[in-house]
Specification:
By secondary structure, the protein is an alpha+beta fold. It has helices spanning 2-37, 39-62, 65-75, 77-84, 90-104, 137-143, 190-204, 240-244, 280-325, 335-352, 366-373, 375-391, 416-432, 459-475, and strands at 108-113, 118-121, 124-128, 151-157, 165-174, 180-189, 207-212, 217-220, 248-255, 258-267, 272-279, 356-363, 398-401, 406-412, 435-437, 440-442, 446-452, 481-484. Helix 1 (2-37) runs antiparallel to helix 9 and helix 11 packs across helix 12. The longest helix has 46 residues, at 280-325.
């Protein structure tokens, strides 16, 4: 019966597997084909603009932060008061710049005074700004910005460390009457911003770069294949003017025989254009990756369903096996279970050269209990005795209901002497128990026959010897234990 149930279970699992995988493969294949057919339209009208929007949102969080910091510095009452007070105690401003740098994680922070032309840095006073020094041209460029423009963003060498390139946010500072008194700001390391761009590219599987309003490529990842400007980048030279005159637009162009989709967007606060590209091959590859991911997920779901089905079937199978091997009244094993357990215990006993004993237990005068109190009370007595037997046994011992009021106990790794002690303990426990039901007190006793397994002996032989010993216990007056030597 167990073998048939197992074969039925395997057949059901295989059919369920084929149906689920077949359905998932067909669904994923159709989805892939439909997506592939509308790929270009999907990329140009939906996917790429949406990706550009997402990247723009992240830029607002990541790259516009230094603009916000510089704005706070330019409006800071301390900076303006300190400048108007003739820049006394420079160490206070240096400490302030150091705190800004540490607090916001920038690579530099600075203030240049219009009055003294001193360049204050988080590490001290670095220099004096000179109008004939090409390295200081940025200051005079910022100073001459229209009043409507409060800041500029530019990429330059770090004044404090010429080996490092920095993205500067240079913010004009005015006194409380609106007079220009200097320039302040912070800087981000170009390398860290490039890593940020590469993170965007990895996250969205798109090419990302920036250009200023003149078309100069300002920031890009290390694997960028274009030129220094839009005007000298193959395929983009004809689109450069349209890109730089539109706040937001979508284009497509040919490069190396591939169709490239491009979305451009002006980052107003940063005064740069964000360009996000995707070639058709990347889109197809993503579709293919999605297809395989869907199949992988399908396999995972299939395995999960099969696992649940297997556990559920296993649960019912174990329940059926338990019903087939367990006595319904007492919960003890039945004869069929005893034979299987005996065979396994016998194999271990022979392998380990350990003893094994059996106890055959019978409730004395049980017929009179049924006659006086009825079969329901008789069943209650059998269950009570069964529970008392279980309470005295180990986990590896087996209690089996052998007949109506007869129980067989298998004791692995127990010799005859030890088995006798257990039988006596059980006998005394039952004899001392009083069963109260319907106002009556019922006292029962048991008789036991004990036998130890002999080498080459069959199961029925050792049980038969225990049965003979039990018969002798009955003949000798009941409520006793007799051993079979």
């Amino acid at each position: 019966m167990g073998h048939k149930v197992w074969n039925d279970k395997k057949r059901f699992i295989w059919i369920l597997t084929v149906l689920l995988l077949g359905a998932f493969v067909v669904t994923s294949g159709i989805s892939y084909q439909v997506a592939h057919d509308s790929l270009s339209e999907q990329i140009e009208e939906n996917t790429l603009p949406l990706t550009s929007d997402n990247i723009y949102s992240e830029i607002q969080h990541d790259l516009l932060k230094p603009i916000f910091i510089s704005s706070l510095m330019a409006q800071d009452t301390f900076v303006r008061d300190w400048t108007l007070e003739q820049e006394q105690t420079p160490e206070k401003l240096v400490r302030y710049l150091k705190e800004i740098q540490d607090k916001y994680g920038t690579v530099t922070s600075f203030f240049v005074s219009e009055s003294t032309r001193n360049y204050y840095h988080s590490s001290g006073v670095l220099k004096k700004i000179d109008d004939i020094d090409p390295n200081d041209a940025w200051y005079f460029r910022v100073r001459s910005l229209p009043k409507s423009e409060q800041y500029e963003v530019n990429i330059d060498q770090d004044t404090a460390n010429r080996n490092r390139t920095v993205i500067y946010v240079n913010y004009k500072v005015f006194d409380f009457d609106g007079n220009f008194i200097g320039v302040t700001g912070v800087g981000l390391a170009v390398e860290s911003v490039k890593k940020m761009i590469e993170l965007y590219q990895t996250r969205y599987n798109r090419s990302v770069y920036f250009t200023d309003r003149q078309g100069n490529i300002t920031l890009h990842s290390k694997d960028f294949a274009g030129g220094d400007t839009l005007q000298n980048t193959p395929g983009l030279e004809k689109l450069a003017t349209r890109i730089l005159t539109s706040p937001s637009a979508s284009f497509s162009y040919q490069r190396d025989g591939k169709t490239i989709f491009l979305n451009s967007r002006l980052v107003t606060d940063f005064k740069w254009y964000l360009l996000v590209e995707q070639d058709e091959t990347m889109g197809k590859q993503k579709l293919l990756t999605t297809f395989w991911a869907n199949l992988g997920m399908s396999i995972f779901v299939t395995l999960a369903i099969l696992l649940i089905a297997n556990l559920t079937l296993g649960k019912y199978q174990r329940k059926l096996e338990l019903m087939a091997s367990t006595d319904k009244l007492t919960g003890a094993a039945n004869r069929q279970a005893f034979e299987e357990y005996f065979s396994r215990s016998l194999a271990r006993s022979v392998l380990d050269s350990t003893p094994m004993s059996v106890l055959l237990v019978d409730i004395d005068h049980f017929k009179s209990v049924n006659d006086q109190h009825g079969h329901n009370i008789g069943d209650l007595v059998i269950k009570t005795v069964s529970n008392m037997l279980k309470a005295e046994l180990r986990e590896q011992d087996l209690l089996c209901r052998w007949g109506g009021e007869e129980f067989l106990i298998l004791l692995p790794n127990i010799d005859l002497s030890h088995a006798c002690e257990i039988a006596e303990l059980i006998r005394k426990s039952v004899a001392e128990r009083r069963i109260h039901v319907n106002g009556c007190e019922i006292n029962v006793t048991i008789s036991s026959g004990v036998a130890e397994y002999r080498v080459t002996e069959k199961a029925e032989d050792v049980v038969n010897r225990a049965d003979i010993a039990l018969y002798q216990a009955k003949e000798q007056g009941r409520n006793r234990v007799v051993l079979s030597y």
